[in-house]
Amino acid sequence: MSTSKHNSLRIVFMGTPDFAVGSLKQLLEAGFKVVGVITAPDRPAGRGRKLQESAVKQFAVKHQLKVLQPTNLKDEAFLEDLKSLDANLQVVVAFRMLPKVVWQMPEYGTFNLHASLLPQYRGAAPINWAIINGETETGVTTFFIDEKIDTGNIILQKGANIRPEDNAGDLHDRLMELGAHLVVDTCKQIEAGTVSLQKQDESMELKPAPKIHKDTCRIDWNSSMMDIYNHIRGLSPYPGAWTELVNDGKAEPMKIFRTEMETSEHDYIVGKLVVGKKSLKVAVKEGYLNLLELQLPGKRRMQVNEVLNGLNLEKEAHLR
Fold first, then answer.
1. What is the pLDDT at residue 3?
2. Is the predicted pLDDT of residue 12 greater than 70, yes or no?
3. Which residues are CB-neighbours of 310 under 8 A, at least 6 positions away?
4. What is the pLDDT of residues 85-94, one digit of tens each?
5. Do 223 and 191 form a contact (C-beta atoms < 8 A)?
6. Burial per residue of 101-135, b for 16 or more beta-carbon CB atoms within 10 angstroms, e otherwise
7. Which residues on neighbouring strands pair with residue 181, listed in sequence order?
8. pLDDT at 2
9. CATH 3.10.25.10 is right for the domain spanning 214-319
10. Which site from 47, 137, 170, 295 is most exposed, i.e. has the minimal number of CB atoms within 10 Å?
11. pLDDT score of 42 more than 80
12. Of the candidates 146, 145, 141, the residue with the CA atom closest to the CA atom of residue 182
């Protein structure tokens, strides 16, 4: 890791998941001085409910950075600790909404990295929604935080293509890398005093990116084949699109992670499962979706051939 050559910026970094680690790593490698890291409190996870540290905390501790984990961002003790770090810039990547007292604190303000080309896809899940909606391009944006969510003045943007086979995981990894470089470029411009701000253009029709809920993830087999295909890949690998497998008088939830489209005419009802020697297809309006990767209740994610080995499907089996 290079020694610090950017002496005028003292950065506090705020973030929680893997997506944010890419940016923190790039800032350190570019020689920026990160004086503190704010991340979510440790949370119980897994069957043993052991306390799990966020991805950002794990990275920060490994690199001997000071870590703060407030439960309340308006707490006086936390605000004192934050002030004592004497930062002049705050960088936010995949964190939570900040109160004004926090984002207004540093001299150069607080900027956020968002995984879309703002103003499109404001909200918690821009990567998922861009794919669910069948977009062919998206990108990353840095902007100064203001009172509302994802509405502040844009500093920099960089576009990225969405390939037809991309799932949310593929796009996440590419935008994490692209975003990390954009964060470094943004810090360089702020340090050099060369930032040129651009207001967000709200004259177009805006597509939101709200939080993904369980209901959002349910597959509607009456939708078009392309919409179902996009829905599944937009929720893969996490949280996973789901449906109900109706078989042998029982209905059980099943997650689907990867499919392939096959256009053809048939007389099956929508949702009917068609079993081949090595294939499992579901009938949709314009043909079939070949199921390639799925997860049955209580089981791990499996390729379709593994599923077929252990699954007895009756003639009337269908998805709903």
1. 42
2. yes
3. none
4. 999 999 999 9
5. no
6. ebbebbebbbbbbbbbbbbbbbbebbbbbbbbeeb
7. none
8. 40
9. yes
10. 47
11. yes
12. 141
Place of tokens 């939570």: 96
Domains 6-192 and 214-319 share a fold: no
pLDDT tens track for 252-282: 999 999 999 999 999 999 999 999 988 999 9
* Dihedral angle computed from the Cα positions of residues 251, 255, 261 and 263, in that order, rounded to the nearest 10 degrees: 10
Triad 56, 59, 60: Cα angle to 5°: 85
Extents of the domains making up the chain: 6-192, 214-319
As a whole number of angstroms, the distance between CA 245 and CA 253 comes to: 6
Report the 10 Å Cβ neighbour count for 97: 13
* Site of tokens 């340090």: 191
Q: What is the pLDDT of residue 5?
A: 64
Nearest to 318 by CA among 274, 283, 271, 280: 271
Residue 133, pLDDT > 50, answer yes
Residue 182, C-beta contacts closer than 8 angstroms, at least 6 positions apart: 113, 140, 141, 142, 156, 157, 158
Per CATH, the architecture of 6-192 is what?
Answer: 3-Layer(aba) Sandwich (3.40)
What does the pLDDT read at residue 298? 83
Q: Is 21:180 a contact under the CB 8 Å cutoff?
A: no
